[in-house]
């Protein structure tokens, strides 16, 4: 299993970050309507700096669907921002091929972050029909942090946890992303270009959580071990 950095033995802080992320996922309450698929909003920064990671996410996104079919399925909506105040949200889909088709049609374009709009969109969507989780992938934050955190707090009041994956360790972004996770009772975790396998496992774990809650995560870990098994151990503690 690859870790978030090339040499895990030399990166104890990364292990602590991942362990903290898994503990937070384990402690996050999940509310899902019986008989309905889970709903996950998958939001990504599509500004110019994100193009390599966008391509990587296209390769990884199918993992979110693999383990959720037996849990009633998973509906995913792709949201992204780029350019000059450009924000888009796709229709909800239930197949990896449909999400991949949407993602491969997007081209990254320089612009400022619009994390506040992502949170506003998540609030509006969950008021229409409950969202079980928000996944946000980004590397920077160029907005007023108090304003963004206020919106995150509103999302938290609606019971939607945000799971924030940060590429790199920009300190301003880290502060904002950690607070978004805290205010929504979600989790934050960093990654880099060496951590595709670990990001895959974490995305899969969040998808299983969105589709079936903590019990589904425990069952998932029995089959796959790795990060999921570490998560189950933390649930049991």
Low-confidence residue ranges: 1-10, 231-237
**Arithmetic mean of pLDDT:** 82
Please give the CATH architecture. 3-Layer(aba) Sandwich
The outline comes out as globular
| CATH-level-4 superfamily name | von Willebrand factor, type A domain
Structural notes for this entry:
It is a single chain. This protein is α/β, with parallel strands linked by helices and 237 residues long. The protein is 51% helix and 16% strand. It has nine helices and six strands. The protein has a six-stranded mixed sheet, sandwiched between helices. Helix 1 packs across helix 9. The longest helix is centred in the last third of the chain and has 29 residues, at 196-224. The two termini are 24 Å apart.
List the defining traits of the structure above.
single chain, 6-stranded mixed sheet, Rossmann fold, 51% helix, 9 helices, disordered C terminus, disordered N terminus, 237 residues, alpha/beta
């Amino acid at each position: 299993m690859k870790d978030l950095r090339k040499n895990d033995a030399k990166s104890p802080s990364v292990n602590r970050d991942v362990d903290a992320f898994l503990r937070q996922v384990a402690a996050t309450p999940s509310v899902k309507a019986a008989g309905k698929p889970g709903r996950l909003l998958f939001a990504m920064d599509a500004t110019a700096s994100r193009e390599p990671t966008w391509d990587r996410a296209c390769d990884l996104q199918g993992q979110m669907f693999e383990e959720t079919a037996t849990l009633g399925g998973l509906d995913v909506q792709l949201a992204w921002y780029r350019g000059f105040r450009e924000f888009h949200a796709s229709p909800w889909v239930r197949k990896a091929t449909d999400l991949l088709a949407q993602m491969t049609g997007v081209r990254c374009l320089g612009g400022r972050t619009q994390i506040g709009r992502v949170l506003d969109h998540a609030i509006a969507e969950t008021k229409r029909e409950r969202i079980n989780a928000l996944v946000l992938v980004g590397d920077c934050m160029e907005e007023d942090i108090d304003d963004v955190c206020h919106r995150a707090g509103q999302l938290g009041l609606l019971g939607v946890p945000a799971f924030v994956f940060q590429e790199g360790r920009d300190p301003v972004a880290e502060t904002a992303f950690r607070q978004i996770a805290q205010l929504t009772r979600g989790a934050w975790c960093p990654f880099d270009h060496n951590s595709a396998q670990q990001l895959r496992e974490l995305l899969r774990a969040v998808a299983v959580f969105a589709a079936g809650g903590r019990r589904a995560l425990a069952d998932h870990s029995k089959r796959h071990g790795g990060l999921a098994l570490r998560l189950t151990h933390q649930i049991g503690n």
